[in-house]
Design brief:
Number of helices: 9
Radius of gyration: 20 Å
Bound molecules: alpha-D-galactopyranose
Shape: globular
Strand content: 15-25%
CATH class of the largest domain: Alpha Beta
């Protein structure tokens, strides 16, 4: 029997690096996604092919990760078998329009997508998201938060997901008419598995421990933090406030206030959390100079995409001018009212 799913990528509009600190985030689904097809394997191995990458990857059913792009599939298949959702080895085909390594959750779309294809009807998407996160945390070894998996499991076109990452409660908020969020790839590749994600996360956990609290978003006073952890705490606390303010702005269709929070978020990620790059700072600055209402690096950072709020402006002309100034950048897609 043939199993299938389609799962979107996501762009985080605001609320960066707070999804494991007890914060509230605002991702939205992309019109780009990954189509996944599963068939029983002809032998005892899982096999994976992709329309985007050459060759075939194969692994025994309980093999550890191989540091290969297909690991996300192997890990998700192992989890699906443990849940009793599928039996035996599988042949899996991926066909994705989500750029890899750009901060728009191509990997979460694959893990959630494989689980979604295997899952019996009626399983709560939040349970799928949590299992997909455990694949990344335990099988791949990236200690990511829950934002990406929740976003791609729940998000609907034309809406953003205001997600309380602690309670796993969320609200789907319509993107106001006339707002366009453009997703632009800076052209600078980033990899989460290279240890920098864990380094930042460990610093957040260390700061919370220092203050004697479970979640850094609960801090009331950062003055006790040592100087290396102070900017980390500063970003997390201020980003939580910005994320909540942006959600309130979205509810009242206040693009000026929303854009303002995006710009402040970028400044904090650049100056305090230090996950931007000079090229991306220049891209954000020029995006705004050319008429955007807000712009910021999105996702984990260290390269990848920016997200830009365009209102009352023709996206095509704006993009032509930005691209002329930054030839390495690429238009990925836009997200707007459904
Ligand atoms: C990656 C992680 C998420 C989140 C972001 C930063 O996308 O997978 O859990 O921490 O980085 O906001």
């Amino acid at each position: 029997m043939n199993l299938q799913s389609w799962t979107p990528g996501r762009v985080n509009l605001i609320g960066e690096w707070i999804d494991f600190n007890g914060g509230t985030v605002l991702p939205a689904s992309l019109p780009l996604g990954v189509e996944i097809t599963l068939d029983p394997s002809p032998d005892n191995f899982d096999h994976v092919t992709s329309a985007q990458f050459p060759g075939k990857a194969s692994a025994e059913q309980d093999a550890p990760a191989q540091k290969h792009w297909a690991d996300y599939v192997f890990g998700a298949l192992q989890t699906a078998r443990k849940q009793g959702w599928i039996k035996g080895a599988q042949t899996v085909r991926l066909d994705s329009t989500i750029p890899a390594g750009a901060g728009v959750s191509s990997s979460a779309a694959v893990t959630v997508g494989v689980l979604k294809a295997c899952v019996p009807n009626g399983v709560d998407p939040t349970r799928i998201a949590l299992l997909a996160q455990s694949v990344e945390n335990e099988f791949i070894g990236v200690p990511c938060g829950i934002m990406d998996q929740m976003a791609v499991a729940h998000a609907r076109p034309g809406e953003a997901l205001a997600l309380d990452t602690r309670a796993l409660k969320f609200e789907q908020l319509a993107i106001p008419e006339g707002w366009t969020f453009a997703v632009i790839n800076s052209g600078i590749e980033r990899k989460l598995a290279d240890g920098r994600y864990k380094e930042r996360r460990d610093a957040c956990l260390a700061a919370a421990k220092y203050l004697g609290i479970d979640y850094l978003c609960d801090a009331e006073d950062l003055s006790a933090l040592p100087s290396n952890l102070h900017p980390i705490g500063q970003h997390v606390l201020s980003e939580e406030a910005r994320s909540r303010a942006a959600i309130a702005a979205l509810r009242r269709s206040d693009a000026l206030a929303f854009g303002h929070q995006m710009l402040a978020s970028h400044a904090s990620l650049r100056k305090d959390f230090k996950v931007s790059t000079p090229e991306i700072d220049a891209l954000v600055d020029d995006a705004v100079q050319l008429g955007a209402w807000g712009a910021r690096i999105t996702g984990a950072g260290f390269g990848g995409c920016i997200v830009v709020l365009l209102v009352d402006i023709k996206p095509a002309q704006w993009w032509a001018d930005l691209h002329a100034a930054h030839p390495a950048s690429r238009w990925i897609c836009d997200v707007k009212a459904g």
